[in-house]
Amino acid sequence: MSSDTDRVAHWFEAAETRPVGDSSVVLLAELNTEGIQALSASHWNDWAETVRSMYPHAESVFPLPAGSIAKLPERFASLDALHKTVTGDARRPVPLVSRRNKSGGHAVFWVPASLAWFEGHFPGHPVVPGVVLIGWAVESIRASQSRRERIDAFRQVKFQRVVVPYTVLCLDWNIKDESIHFEFRSIEGVHGKAHLVVRSTS
Fold it and tell me: How far is Cα 104 from Cα 196, in angstroms, rounded to an integer?
């Protein structure tokens, strides 16, 4: 086993191929912590080509959180169908990590090209709308909290880089009193950030 192949093998909890459509094959890659770190630190094309070196018959790679493959069917009509099956909603990215800590939390998402928000926004240059990024952040933050928060205001909202297909997004947030600061970052740098003014409702 080559050093590259050995390195890639350590990124997976599991990996299997599935037929997609009439003739395509996609590699489903359940990532462990090392694999998610490798994905977050690499450009998608570089990472996908490294993974495909072990599975040359796979035409594309679809990263997944551990424990996902056993729940998926043996065949998919399209990559869109695969996306919807994994996320339950074509408007959401693929969640790879979600955890909270004493002061906030951290999440990692993979943004597939099949994301519904890319349709018509914009033709030939697909990007995720900024308001959608805010929605993803709010949803992730709320899901991690034991108490319910009412958002009273958004402040210091800044969008610095567009989010395009195959972006690996890291979301970090910090909670202090009645303020939550969040930031989306990728290997390209900061994509967006904001402060939420919140009030507990429980």
Answer: 13
Count other Cβ atoms within 10 Å, centred on residue 169.
Answer: 22
CA distance 166 to 31: 16
CA distance linking residue 103 with residue 194, whole number of Å: 16
Write the pLDDT tens digit of every residue in 36-56: 999 999 999 999 999 998 899
pLDDT in tens, 68-124: 999 999 999 999 999 999 999 999 999 999 999 888 999 999 999 999 999 988 889
Phi-psi region of 82 (alpha: psi -120 to 50; beta: other; left: phi over 0): alpha
Residue with tokens 């240059």: 125
Omega of the bond leading into 118 within 30 degrees of 0 (cis): no
